[in-house]
Design goal:
mainly alpha; 5-stranded mixed barrel; 5 strands; 6% strand; elongated
Length: 798
C-alpha cells in the first residue's frame, strides 16, 4: 500500500517545473515502479528533446514493464526510437539483455567501444553495471572524465560496482557538476571513502541558494546520522519558502518521528513571519500525527496542544534566551515579529524576566524601551495590565510599582511638576527606583545636575543603577569616562564591561580587543553576542583572526551568522580559505551557516573585480587538501567554462537547425515586424539614451534567499567606503538632526551618521570635518546610513 502511494506521488512529480525533480522521479520509478500507470506516465517523455529525460524514461519504462509482465512495445508502439549506431547494438537490447545473452552482448560491446555513439553510451553503462568487470574500467573512466551532465549517473553506478578506484579518481570532477543529482550521487559515493568530507559536501547542498540542490541533498539525507541531519533540516525550516523543499523536509521528519523534532519546530515557529509560521505549523502537526500513528507516543499525548505544553515546560527558558540573541542581530522585519510575540505573551513570568533582562543588554536596551514605554494611543488600562504583572513577579511593593509606572509614562510637559521628587529618587531612592529615575531624567532633561547624580551613582553596587549612570556619562561627559575607562573595562559585570569596551574602542583599541577575546570564552550566549558585535566595529585586519577562530568553535547559529555577515562584508580569498578550514564546529545548524557563507562568498568573489578585493591577511597555506575537498571541488567548478557538457554546443546547434526548419515562416514574419518597430522607435531611443551606459540584465525568478545576501552597490557607494568596515572620510555637514546625529556629504553622496554620544551637539551646517564611521546600509532614498565613532573639525575651521 505504501509503495503504491509512493509510486503515485512520483507520477505526480513528473509534471514538476523543476527539471532535476523530474529526473529524480524517473530514476526512483526505475526502482519502485510496478504498474502500467507508471509506464503510461513515462510514454510522453520518451520522445522528449531533452536527451537525459528521454534516456532515463526509456530505462524506467523497460524495468517497470519487466516487473509488471506487460509488453512494452505494445504500450509504446507510437514511439519511434532514434536510430542507434554500433552495428546491431540497440538501446532496447542493452537495457533489457537477458542473462543467457549477457556474454554475447558484452563481447559485442567491447568490440565496438570506439564506435559507440554518444546517444548509446548511457545505455552501455547500464549494461556494464550488470555484466561488465574490472577490465571495463578504462572505458568507464574515460566516459566519467568527459561527462558531468545527468547522463553521468549510469556511469557512476557502473563504476561504483566494477571500478571503484576509477570512480574515486573522478569524484572531484563529478562533485563540481552543475547538476544537483550528479553532485548528490557523488556525495553518496564519497561517503564510502571519507564520511566527514562527504558531510561537508552534503551541508553545502542543503545551504545552496538553488532549491533543486537542497532537494537533491534531502534525497540522500538518510545516508548520514539521523541526529546530525535533523539538526540541518531544523535549521533550514525558519527561512525555507520553496514548497517542494518544505514538503521534502516534512516527509523526512515525519518518516522518522521524534518528540525532539516537534519541539525543535516549535523553537522557531514564533520568531518567523506569519506566512512562514503557517508553513511550519503544517509540518509541526504532521510530525505530531506521525508520533501518534507510529505508537511512539500515545495518540492523546501526541496532540499538538499537548506537545506545546511539553515545550513550555522543557524549552521555553532556552527559547527566551535565544530570542535575546536574535534581537541583537535581526533585521527590522524579524525583530518586529519577535517583539509582537513578546507583547502577546508578556503576562508569562519568564517573559517578564526576559523584558527586564533586555534593559541590561547594550544590544537590546532600545527594545526594552519600546516594550516598557506606554503608547499614547492606548488606554491607561492597557498600560496598567502591561506594567503590573511585571512587578508582581519581583514582589515589588505597590507604592514602588506605581512610581515606576508613573516614571515610564512621564512626558516633557509633565516634568516641572515632578522634577523635585525625581531628583530625590535619583539621588537616594531604592536601587530599582533610582535606576528608573536616572533613566527618566536622561530621557526628558539631561543637564549638569543629572551629570553630578550619575557620577555619584556610577560606584553603586547595583547593576541597574550603574548601567543607567554609565549611559548618562556616555552622553554628557566623555572625558570622565576616558579617565576611568580602564577600571570600567575590568568590571565584574559583563554588561558594564561591554559598554566600556564599546566606548574604549575609539581610543584604546588594542586593550579593548584583548578584553573582547576573553569575553568570547564566556558560556553565556548574550556575552559572546555582544563581544562579536563590538568586534564588528574594529578594523577588519585586527578582528579577522579572532572572528575566524570564534566561528570554528561557536555553538550558537545566530552568533555564527553575525560573524559570517562581518566576514562577507569584507570579501577576499583569504576569508574564503578561512571558511574552508572551519572543521571543528559540532552543531549542524552552525555548519549550515558556514556552508551558506562559503557558497555566498564564492559567488561574490566571482563578480567582484580583482582591485576591489582587499586581503586582510596573507593566505595561510595549510597542509595539502584532499583532491575531493570542498575547496578543490569549488576551484574545479570555477575553472570550467559556462558550457559544461561535452558536445553541448553541437547538440544545441542541431536542435536549433531543426526548429528553424519548422518555424522559418513565423520567424520571418516576426523578424520583419520587429525591424519595422525598431526603426520607428530608433530616434526616440537615441535621444532618451544619450549620455547613458546601461547594460542589459537577464531576468530571472527572484530567489527568496537573495535578501539574506550582502550586496555591494558600486554605483551608490564611494570607492573608499565598504559596508560594515570602519573608515575615515572628509565631509561637509548638510544638516544636524540631533545632538548625536547628522547628515553629511562626501563625494556628492549623502551619509546619515548616528553617534552613541552627543558628538554633534556643537556642530553647525557647512562645517568641514573628518569623520570616522562604520557604514552599514543604503536606505531606499539612496542615503548611506552609518554608525559614527568619532569626528574632528578640519583645520582652518576650528
Amino acid at each position: 500500500m505504501a509503495e503504491n502511494l509512493q509510486e503515485k506521488e512520483l507520477i505526480t512529480q513528473l509534471s514538476s517545473d523543476k527539471r532535476s525533480l523530474v529526473i529524480q522521479a524517473i530514476v526512483k520509478l526505475t526502482r519502485i515502479g510496478r504498474t502500467k500507470d507508471s509506464i503510461q506516465a513515462l510514454v510522453p517523455l520518451l520522445n522528449s528533446s531533452d536527451r537525459e529525460i528521454s534516456f532515463f524514461s526509456f530505462q524506467a519504462a523497460g524495468k517497470i514493464a519487466q516487473k509488471a509482465g506487460v509488453d512494452l512495445q505494445e504500450l509504446i508502439k507510437d514511439y519511434q526510437p532514434a536510430q542507434e549506431s554500433g552495428e546491431n547494438l540497440t538501446r532496447e537490447e542493452l537495457l533489457s539483455t537477458k542473462a543467457e545473452k549477457g556474454k554475447e552482448t558484452l563481447f559485442k560491446v567491447r568490440r565496438l567501444y570506439d564506435k559507440i555513439s554518444d546517444e548509446l553510451l548511457p545505455s552501455v553503462a547500464v549494461f556494464l553495471r550488470r555484466y561488465g568487470d574490472v577490465s571495463d574500467a578504462p572505458f568507464l573512466e574515460k566516459c566519467l572524465a568527459n561527462e558531468s551532465s545527468n547522463l553521468a549517473l549510469p556511469f557512476i553506478e557502473a563504476a561504483e560496482k566494477i571500478a571503484p578506484q576509477a570512480l574515486a579518481r573522478n569524484l572531484p570532477h563529478l562533485l563540481a557538476s552543475k547538476e544537483p543529482l550528479v553532485r548528490s550521487r557523488s556525495v553518496s559515493a564519497l561517503r564510502r571513502i571519507d564520511p566527514e568530507e562527504a558531510e561537508r559536501h552534503f551541508s553545502d547542498l542543503l545551504a545552496s541558494r538553488n532549491p533543486e540542490d537542497r532537494l537533491a541533498g534531502i534525497a540522500i539525507a538518510f545516508l548520514f546520522p539521523f541526529q546530525r541531519v535533523k539538526g540541518y533540516i531544523l535549521s533550514l525550516l525558519p527561512e525555507e519558502r520553496d514548497a517542494d523543499v518544505l514538503k521534502a523536509c516534512q516527509t523526512f521528519l515525519a518518516s522518522n518521528p521524534e518528540l525532539d523534532s516537534a519541539l525543535g519546530i516549535l523553537d522557531s515557529i514564533d520568531s518567523v513571519s506569519p506566512e512562514q509560521k503557517g508553513r511550519l505549523t503544517i509540518i509541526f502537526k504532521t510530525v505530531c500525527q506521525a508520533l501518534g500513528t507510529t505508537g511512539i507516543m500515545d495518540a492523546e499525548k501526541a496532540r499538538p496542544e499537548e506537545i506545546v505544553k511539553i515545550w513550555k515546560q522543557q524549552r521555553l527558558e532556552a527559547f527566551l534566551n535565544d530570542l535575546e540573541i536574535q534581537l541583537s542581530f535581526s533585521d527590522e522585519k524579524k525583530k518586529a515579529a519577535i517583539v509582537a510575540w513578546i507583547e502577546k505573551n508578556r503576562n508569562h513570568p519568564k517573559v517578564r524576566e526576559l523584558i527586564e533582562r533586555l534593559a541590561r543588554n547594550p544590544q537590546t536596551e532600545k527594545v526594552f524601551q519600546q516594550l516598557t514605554r506606554p503608547v499614547q494611543s492606548k488606554k491607561d488600562q492597557d498600560s496598567e495590565t502591561q506594567a503590573k504583572p511585571m512587578q508582581k513577579q519581583q514582589a515589588i511593593p505597590d507604592d514602588d510599582r506605581q512610581k515606576i509606572k508613573k516614571m515610564r509614562g512621564l512626558e516633557l510637559e509633565n516634568l516641572p511638576a515632578n522634577k523635585s521628587w525625581l531628583l530625590k529618587e535619583a539621588e537616594n531612592g531604592k536601587p530599582l527606583i533610582r535606576k528608573e529615575a536616572l533613566s527618566t531624567l536622561l530621557r526628558l532633561h539631561p543637564d549638569n545636575k543629572l551629570l553630578d547624580l550619575a557620577k555619584q551613582a556610577i560606584d553603586n553596587p547595583d547593576q541597574g543603577v550603574k548601567i543607567a549612570a554609565f549611559q548618562i556619562l556616555e552622553r554628557l561627559d566623555n572625558e570622565f569616562l576616558k579617565e576611568n575607562i580602564a577600571s570600567f573595562m575590568q568590571e565584574d559585570d559583563p554588561n558594564i564591561r561591554l559598554r566600556a569596551i564599546r566606548f574604549a574602542l575609539k581610543f584604546k583599541e588594542s586593550e579593548a580587543i584583548e578584553i573582547l577575546k576573553s569575553l568570547l570564552k564566556s558560556s553565556e550566549h548574550r556575552i559572546r553576542a555582544n563581544a562579536v558585535a563590538c568586534l564588528g566595529l574594529c578594523p577588519f585586519s585586527s578582528a579577522y583572526k579572532i572572528l575566524m577562530d570564534q566561528l570554528d568553535e561557536e555553538s550558537h547559529p545566530v552568533i555564527a551568522k553575525h560573524i559570517t555577515s562581518i566576514l562577507l562584508s569584507n570579501p577576499s580569498k583569504a576569508v574564503l580559505k578561512g571558511l574552508d578550514n572551519i572543521t571543528r564546529t559540532s552543531n549542524p545548524a552552525v555548519a549550515m551557516v558556514v556552508s551558506q557563507a562559503r557558497n555566498d562568498l564564492f559567488e561574490l568573489l566571482k563578480k567582484l573585480p580583482e582591485e576591489a578585493i582587499q586581503e586582510p591577511v596573507k593566505i595561510d597555506a595549510k597542509s595539502e587538501s584532499k583532491p575531493y575537498s570542498v575547496e578543490n571541488v569549488r576551484n574545479i567548478a570555477r575553472s570550467r567554462q559556462k558550457v559544461w557538457k561535452p558536445g553541448y554546443k553541437a547538440e544545441q546547434n542541431a536542435k536549433t537547425k531543426e526548429s528553424l526548419k519548422s518555424s522559418l515562416n513565423w520567424q520571418m514574419i516576426l523578424s520583419g515586424a520587429v525591424v519595422i518597430v525598431f526603426l520607428a522607435m530608433l530616434p526616440i531611443m537615441l535621444l532618451s539614451d544619450r549620455g547613458k551606459n546601461d547594460y542589459g540584465k537577464v531576468n530571472r525568478p527572484k530567489d527568496w534567499r537573495d535578501d539574506e545576501r550582502k550586496k555591494f552597490s558600486r554605483s551608490k557607494i564611494p570607492a573608499n567606503l565598504r559596508m560594515n568596515r570602519p573608515c575615515s572620510i572628509p565631509a561637509v555637514v548638510e544638516k544636524v538632526t540631533s545632538d548625536s546625529s547628522m547628515v553629511v556629504k562626501h563625494e556628492d553622496q549623502q551619509i546619515m551618521i548616528k553617534f552613541e554620544t552627543p558628538e554633534t551637539k556643537n556642530i553647525t551646517p557647512g562645517t568641514e570635518l573628518v569623520v570616522t564611521m562604520v557604514p552599514f546600509r543604503v536606505n531606499p532614498r539612496g542615503i548611506i546610513q552609518a554608525r559614527g565613532t568619532s569626528l574632528a573639525i578640519s583645520k582652518g575651521q576650528e
